[in-house]
What does this fold into?
Amino acid sequence: MKVELRGITKRFPGVVACKGVDLTVESGEVHALLGENGAGKSTLMNILFGLYRADEGEVCLDGEPFDCRSPAQAIAAGIGMVHQHFMLVPVFTVAENVMLGVEPTGPLGRLDRVEARRRVEELSDRYGLAVDPDAVIEDLPVGVQQRVEILKALYRDARCLILDEPTAVLTPHEIDELMAIIRQLADGGRSVIFISHKLREALGIADRITVLRGGEVVGHTTPAETDEQALAAMMVGRDVQLVVDKAPARPGEPVLEVDGLVVSDDRGHRAVDGVSLTVRAGEILAIAGVQGNGQSELVEAICGLRPVDAGAVRLDGRDVTGHDPRAMFRAGLAHVPEDRQRDGLIGSLPVADNLVLNQLDRRPFSRRSVINRREVRRHAARLVEEFDVRTPSIDTPVGNLSGGNQQKVIIAREFFHADRLLVLSQPTRGLDVGSIQYIHRQIVAKRDEGVAVLLNSSELDEVLALADRIAVVYRGRVVGVLDREEANRERLGLLMAGAVEEAAAVEATGEEEVTVT
Amino acid sequence: MTTATEQPPAAPPPAGGDGGDAGAGTGGGRGRAVVARLADLGNALVIPVLALVTALVVGGLVMVFTDPETLDEWGSFLSDPLGALEASWDLVSESYEALWRSSVGTPRGIGRTLVEATPLALAGLSVAFAFRAGLFNIGAAGQLIIGATCAGWVGFTWDLPAPIHLPLAVVAGFLGGAAWGGIAGVLKARTGAHEVITTIMLNYISYRLLDYALRSDAFQPPGRDDLISKPVRESARLPEVSLGEVTVHAGVFVALAAAVAVWWLLERTTTGFRLRAVGANPDAARYAGMSVPAMYALAMVVAGGLAGLAGTSNILGRPSFSLTGGYYSFIGFDAIAVALLGRANPAGVLVSAFLFGALRSGSTGMQAATSTPVDIIVVIQALIILFVAAPALVRSIYRIKAGRGTAQTFTASWGS
It folds into this structure.
C-alpha cells in the first residue's frame, strides 16, 4: 500500500510536534523514519494510526484521501502498528492474542479456536515467523512476543506496517531475525515504516530513509547515498563524534575478582556456570553475549542482589560473596542497573531524592537519621548541572523526564560515589545519540580516574567502543576473553554463538572502525 | 579524553516528555517554588472540596425524596409548583443548618466534633502511614480494638497515681495496636502474605478476642453478664481541657502530635524516606540497598500503633470509659475513608477527620431538630468517598480539565 502524508502539522500546548511533514512510502518499500527522542516520529505515526488528528495536512492511502479518526478505522484501512511496548495479554496463548477483537465465531457466538489457530499457523509459516500458536505469551522471549504483534497486524490484513522502535528490546540475534521478516513482508508488497534512532539498522534494512528533527523533515535519503556519520549529523543537527576517543588503558591492581561463580536464575536453572573474571583498576572489562546467557544473573550476583550457589566474589581482595546490596555499596560498588525504571529510580519521587537514593544515610545528607534537606538539594543542583540532566526543576518527579535524562540521573548518582568498582548494565539502551555519546565519555573518564569498570552490554557497538578487554559469555560460561585489539565483530559474533573453534580461526583484523549507534 | 565541543542540545519537549529548559531547577528561586507549592495545594484541594459540595447537593436530594411530607408537596407539583420547591428548600436548608449548628456552630458542638474526630484522625493516620509504605492497612479496626483492650485493661486493673497511670495506659494502647499490626507486617515480610487478607482476618480475630475478654472475670464488672468491661479508673482517664468555651479531652492533642510526628518521620528522616521509597518502588529500593521486608514490618508496626492510639483515645476519653462488644469497628473503616479523602497526607487526614467528625457529631442534633434521619450522614459520607475515588466524574460534572502530572492518587493504586 502506498502511504502519503502531506504537510502534516500537529500542535500540542506549547509545542509544535510536527511542522508540515511530507512522507511518501511506496508499496513494497521499507522506509526508515529516523530522529532523536522528541523529533516527532511517534506523533507522526500516531496521526497515521488515528490516535491523534493532524491540525493541518492530509493522509492518502493508495492515492485516496483518508480521514482517520480512530485506530479501528486505521486497522480497517489496512494499517497495522507494532508499538514499542507490546499490547498482549500475558496469560493468553499466541492464537488467543492474535484473534483478540476479531475472533472467528461459530453459531451462537461460539469461539472458533480451531479456525483461529489454523490461520495463525498459516500466517506464521508463510512469513517464516516460527511462532507456536499454543504457547502462552508470558513464557515467550521478547523477540517472539514481538513476532506475535506482527502476526496480529498481518491477521488483520495490514498492508502497511508501522514498527515503533522495534529493536530497542531485542538481542542482536533477534534483530537479525526481525530484519529478515521485515524484508520478506516488503517483498510481499507490503509497505513497512521502521521507526528508529539506530543508524546502523536503518542503513541495513531501509530502502529509503527520512530524517526528522524538531518536528520537521530535515532530509530524505537512501542507504546508498549516506553513511552513519552523515545521518547522525542530520539527526542531531551538528557534527557528532561517533568514535569514543580514549587513551590506552593503564590497568592497575585487581579490584574485582570473580572465582568459579555459580548462580541460578528465577526458575532455579543454573544461569551462571562457573564464571571467573578479573577487573583491574583503570580498565573497562565488557561482558558480551546474546541476552539470556547469564549476564544479568552474573551482574546481580556480583552486586549482592542474587544468591550465590558456589564460587567467590572478591572486592579489593576482600571476600564479599553473598553480601547484601548495602554491604556491597559500602565496600565500594557503584551499580547502574539494567532496568532503569524498575530498579534504578523511584518515578514518583523528585529528581533530588533519586540522586541520593542510596546515599541518604550518609553525611552530609543526613545526621543521626534526620535528613538535611538543604544539603540534599544543593547536591542535586550540582549533579544536575554537572551531568546536564534536563529537568524543569530538581523537584520534578523523575518519572516525568525522558529516558535519556532518567539514565543521566542514575549515572550522576552512581558515578558520584564510584571510586573503586563501577558495574554498568546496558547503560545506554534505548537512548538517543546525544545521550549515548555523553554517557560513553563519562564512562571513559571514570576509567581514567582509576576505577575498575565492568560493562554488561548487548550492543556490540558499545562493547567495541568502550572495552579494553572483552569477556564473551555463552550459556553461563566465559567462552573467551579477548583484548580489544584481538576483537572484531565477526570473531565476537562467533564466540557469542558458542562457536569457539571457528572464532579462534578468525585472524584478528586489527583496528576496525568503531562506531556508536 | 574526548573532544566534543558542546553539550547535546535540548530536544523540543514532546507532549509529555523531555522537560524544557536545562538547569532551571538550579537557580529557579524560592518565589517560584512557593507559587508552585500553592498551585499544587490548590490542585490537591479542588477534587475533595468539589466532592464535598456535590455530596451535600446529592444528599439534599435524597432528603427531599425520602421525606414523606415533602413528597406529598411534590405530588401536587402541578397545582402548586412553588410550594413543592419551597418545602424542599426548607427541609434541606433546615437540616443542614441544624447539622452545622450542632457540629461547629457552637463551642459545645466544636468540642464534640473534635472529640469525635480524634480517633478518626489517629486511625486515618494509621491507614495513611501504611499506604505511604505501599501497604493497605484494612486492619485499623482490629488494631484499634486490641489497642483499646490493652489500654482499658491497664486503665481499670491497675491502681496508680495519674501521672504514671495515664501514660502507661496510653503506651499500652500503642503497643497493643503495634503488636497486632506487626503480626500482619511480619507475615508480609517473612512470607509475602498479602496484608489486605491478613489484616481483614486479624480484624475478625480481634472482635472475637474482645468478646472473649469481655466475658472473663478480668474484664467484666462483678454482677453483670452483658458484654461490657469495668470502667477505666479516674487516674487513667484523659483529662478534660477547656480552650475558652470549647471543652475537649487531651486525646485531641495526642492526635495532633501524632500527625506532626508522622509528617516528620516520613518527610524528614532517613527511615521515612526508606518507607516512602519502598512504597513507591520496592525494586529500586532493594537495588539501592534498602531492606524491603524490614520496612514492611516497621510500617505495619507503626500503623498498628497509631490505630491502637485511636482505640486508646476512645476508651480513656469521654464519652464511654468501658469497652463494649463490637463498638469500635466503624472507626477502623471510616479511617480508610479519612485517609483516602486526606490523600494519605497527615495534614489532609486531620482536615478530613474533622469533617467526618463534624458530620457524625452534628447528625444527632440534626435529627432532633428536623425529621431528617441520622442515616443521611452515612449517605453523604459515602458520596464524598465515591466522588473522591472517581475524580474523573467530578471533573466532568464541573468541566475541569485534568491537571498535568496529577499526583498518584490513593484509589488509583488499589489492587494494582
